[in-house]
Structure formats: structure tokens, C-alpha cells
Amino acid sequence: MPAKNSLKTLMVSSAVLSLGGLSSAMASEGYSDDVVRIGVLTDMSGIYTDLSGEAAVEAVRMAVEDFGGEVNGVPIEVIHGDHRNRADTGASRAREWYNNDGVDMINDLSNSGVALAVAAVADEQQRHAISNSASNIGLTNDYCSPYVTHYTYDAYSLAHGTGKSIVEDGGDTWFFLTVDFAFGIGLEEQVSEVVREAGGQVVGAARHPLDTTDFSSYALQAQASGAEIIGIASTGADAINAINALAEFGVTPDQRPAALLLWYDDIVSLGLETAQGLLLTNAFYWDANDETREFSQRFYERTGRMPNMAHAGNYSSTMHYLNAVEAAGTDDATAVSEAMREMEINDFFASGGYIRPNGRMVHDQYLWEVKSPDESEYDYDFMRLVTTIPGEEAFQPLEKSSCHLLNGS
Amino acid sequence: MDILGIPIQALMGQLMLGIVNGSFYAVLSLGLAIIFGVLKIVNFAHGAFFMVGAFTAFLLAQYMGANYWMTLLLAPLLVALFGMAFEFLFLRRLYGLDPIYGLLLTFSLVLVLEGGFRVAFGSSGQPFATPEQLRGTINLGFMILPLYRGFVIVSALLLCLVTWYVIERTSLGANLRAATERSELTQAFGVNVPRLITLTYGVGVGLAAFAGVLAAPIFHVNPSMGSSLVIIIFAVVVIGGLGSIMGAIVTGLGLGVVEGFTRVFYSEFSSTIVFLVMVLVLLLRPAGLFGREEG
Lengths: 409, 295
Hints:
By secondary structure, chain A is an alpha/beta fold. Helices cover 44% and strands 18% of the residues of chain A. Chain A has helices at residues 2-26, 53-67, 87-99, 112-125, 155-168, 182-197, 216-225, 236-248, 264-270, 272-275, 290-303, 309-328, 333-342, 391-394, and strands at 36-42, 70-71, 74-82, 105-108, 128-131, 148-150, 173-179, 201-208, 229-233, 256-259, 279-282, 354-355, 361-362, 365-370, 383-389. In chain A, helix 12 packs across helix 13 (333-342). In chain B, helix 1 (8-39) packs antiparallel against helix 10, helix 2 crosses helix 3 and helix 3 (68-89) packs across helix 8 (193-219). Chain B has one domain: ABC transporter involved in vitamin B12 uptake, BtuC. In chain B, strand 3 and strand 4 (144-146) form a beta hairpin.
């Protein structure tokens, strides 16, 4: 598509222009410490372990092995750490990694609070951070940086995938059950905007703390609101508990739950009986095509589980980073950033994907529907494709981004 | 009719949910109070035993084909046996030392148990079906109460009353209370105090596991399900008066209700209200609502 290409050229050149001053001063040939070191900063022990965790580390390791274990003769090393879902822990670990341990790029970054904190450190230290598991669009707006990439999905793509399709389907009064931190609130805002743009109405919201087990009281509030759609702006165990509570209290036939960020793993945990019919916007599903099946099979053999979109994104983004390091001939962050934003991403995860100057990786998103137990024919056969959302529609238009890199200030 | 702008129906609904949650608090804090009363051990692993109870029920149902009623009986027994082994092998060595040692040991058990289950079963949890007989809902007029939650209230309260009766009104309970007050003298009367203590720990742990099985269909079985509860349970025991059996039961229910109402008026505050009550009670009655001032 010529229009897309010329837009891309424009964006890439603006990125290059904005980075130009920095790169001439800083770019140097060669590799710091004679090693390219990747840190996977993830939730190893908390509520998001299943979504990222050990399997995220494994995905990055797979990418490094598939890349050959070295780049231009320099070895690649992978280390990992636990941010314990605390922004301050994440930020101080990132600072330690960048400053003392020679980490060139931090990947995964589940938990939006952690991702935003680490993005600020990455910008200050001029090292790379790539988030695959977090959703807050602050990463490509107020917190944007030439060194920060938001890769797999974000709250905007969720809102414009799941949220929009439900509004179009006639669900126009909404009540939100929102997890009370950056992720939930950001997601609620994005979906509310979509609802209002489509002429719908948001009648209220209840905020609950992270890792809530008892949603019964919120289920009652949702019922009392009379809204048609109960938007669940949380994920993992929180979303699972919320869906269960809504089902248990028999949310009336005129009310439907809409889970705004469901992961493949959540479907496994809910079971098809409860989850059937739910819609989810995911950038990746293991059973989409031969390429995804091939990757997923290998991933399954190593981890005993099927990859979700963040795991696939961890692999793909690590590969892209390493390709950029190879092309730039250095691990200098500015040179690599330029290369990452110039090179197109074509693999099992994305086709024709590219990174905008504000760090947003643009690629197609997919709206899936969970199959019923009868429709599921083999192990892990859980989802059916409803529609493909082209990358340009799925992500926030560049002109709406408040990223300071875009207006040259 | 509205109260402070909230429809009375919504208030009654939250009151009912508060009682359901309060039932869990009551059973859990009861076990904790018994253990503290007799062993003088701050059993930090109480939440973990609650979780292990739920997982044991899940495993029994999944791999042995046990039905819900069998798991409700077997899981607490198995977990109680595990707890008694833990008391016999480890905890026993710490009696008479600073309570901090007991707290550290039981806390380490929490880390081991939660970590172990997380490695084996992941963090997002396992589904646990509500028993067939208890599916469906009852229309109470002011709210739709799922039948299962009604069952939770009834069985939890029943269990609390039985436990209270055994401790306060039977000869076994009298021995137990005697062992708490003057263990050497009780032993001189021919009561096997160490065995009594092991048994008490088993009962306390069994109560936690029972609550875990009750919670499994509601909360989804996951490794961290106990850790968010245990702090509240401690607050309940402190508010009720350390070691007071009736205090634990009444306070557990009461705080469930207070928490439920807070969710209506100011939801964000609901996870904090219990601790605010604790601060107030400690300021006004340092021994707790039902505790006796010592010395």
C-alpha cells in the first residue's frame, strides 16, 4: 500500500530527525562489555505470573537461541528478575540492571504501574525497554521515549476491539468493575471514550483493589446499576473472579459481562463452560495458522503450556531488537532505536509490523470468541476468529498521542 | 425507601453478603483464636492452610472422583493431619520461646506452601464446581441469594457453635482450658497435655481447611487465596480479644457486615475499614472487645 508506506517513511524520517542530535553525539561502534545483555523483568510470584512469569523468560531465551546465541560474534545473555508488582521495586531493579549489570534491553514488563516506572528509568538511562504485557497507553504518550517500545497490545486496541464491537452490537449502557491502579483506570477511560463516541452511556463504576477474591458486593452494585454491559477492566485472577461472581449472582438476561482484557490463560482457568461466548481482543492465538502452530508447539515442549500474546510478543520483540542490533553493528541504544524504528517486522507474530516514533508497534489485532465445550474439538481448541482489526485502526492515531517526540519539543 | 441515598434493597443485599464473608472470617478466626489460646503461637500459616484445604478438595475431586460432600469431610481431616505433623515435628520446639519464632516459622511455611502450589498449579487458579444440589438461587425479596452462599452461612455458623460448645461446655474442653491456664498442673492430673496441644493445632488447622473447601466454589482455587484473608483474620482476632472463642465468632461476623456496608458507601475504603476498627478498639479497649484484662 503506497499510502501506508509514504506515511511510514514520513514517520521514520521524523523519528530519525528527532533522534539525530543525540545519535551523532552518542553513537559508537561496538558492544558495551562485549556482550548484549537482555533482562526479563516480570512477575515471577504474584497475580500475573501465569500471564508472563517464567514462560516470558523462556520465550526470550527461545528467541536468543533461534537467533544463534550471538550477534556479530558478540554473545547474548539473558537474565531475569521479579518486580513483585511494585512500581518502585521494578524501577530500582531496572536502574540497577542498566547501571551496574550492563543490561541493554529490558523486556516483558507486566503490570502497567511497573512498566510506566521502568519506562521513565529507561528514558533517563538511555537504554531500551520493551513492554509486551502491560496495557497503559501512557507508554506511548506522556512517558514515550526513543528507547521505549510498546509491542503487543494496549488499552486503546482493547477498547477498539472488544469494547467497540460490543457497542456496535447494541450494548450501549455500561457499568465498570475496575481494578484500582494505572492499568484498570486507563482501560476504563479508553473504553468509556469508545462507548461515548458511539452514543452510548457510562452509568457508573466500582473500583476494587488488585488481587480481590470476593466480587459479590461488586456484582450486586453492577446489577443495581441497570447497565446492559458490565465492563470488567481487570485481568488474570481478578477478571476470573469477577466473571464467576457475575455468573453466580445470575446477572439478569438483559445484562452481559464484557471482559476487556482476557488472556488465553484466563480461558484455560475459567473453563469453556463458564467462558463460552466471551469476546477477547488478542494479538496472537496459537492456533491461528501454520507458523503460529509451529512456534507454539516448540514453546509447549519447553514450558508445558501454550503461549499467550505476551509470550509471543516477548519472542518477536526480542528477535526484532536483536535484528536491529545486528543491522546497527552496535548495541548503542540510540543507533539500535533508529534501526528498530526503520525495520519492518515480519514473522509469525506480525506481518508488516512497524514501530512508530512514539514507540507503538503497529500490527493487526484480532477479535476472538471463546468456543463452547461442544465446539472445541481438540486440546487447547478454545477460540474462533471473529474479525481482524487492521493495525492502523487498532492503535491510537499518531495525531492524538501526547508524546513529546512527535512535535519536536 | 433510601438510606443516605442508597436504596434499602441494596443495603440489605450488602448486609447479606457481609454475613457470608463474616462466616468465613468467623471460622478462620475461630481456628486462629483456639491455636493462640492454647499454644500461644501466632499461626501465620492459617491462610495457607485455608488455601491447602481448597486445593486438597480440588485434588480429591479431580483425581479421586470424590464428590463435594466427601471433600468437605476429607479435606479438613487430611489438612488437619498435615498440621498435626507440622506441630509435632517443628512447632513443638518453639514453645516457651519468644512468640516471634513461632511467627517466623509459620510464615516460612506460608512461603513454602504458596510457592509450591504456585509452581505446581500456576497463579490464575483452578475452577471448582458448585455441588449440583446447591446450584441456583433463592429470591429473598430484596436480593437474589445464590443457594450456595446460604449454605456457607448455615454450615459455618453451625461449625462455630459446635466448636464453642465443645470448648466451653464439655470435659474435653475443660481439660483444654485447664491446660491453657496451668499446663503442668493439668499434666499432674493425668491429662496428656502435649497430645492435647497437637490435637488443638489439628482442630484449628482443620477449621481453616474447612473454610477453604467452603470457599473453593466461590473464590476459585488459587495459591494466594489465603494471603489476602489472613491479615483481616488477625485483625478480627485482635479486635475480638486474643484467644477469646466467642469474641472471634462475633467479631468475624460483625466485621464482615461492616465491610459489606463500606463497599456500598465508599468502596475504595473497604479494604481499610477493618484496620480502622482495630485501631479504635485497641485505643479504647486494649484487650479487645471480648478479652479479659490481665494482671
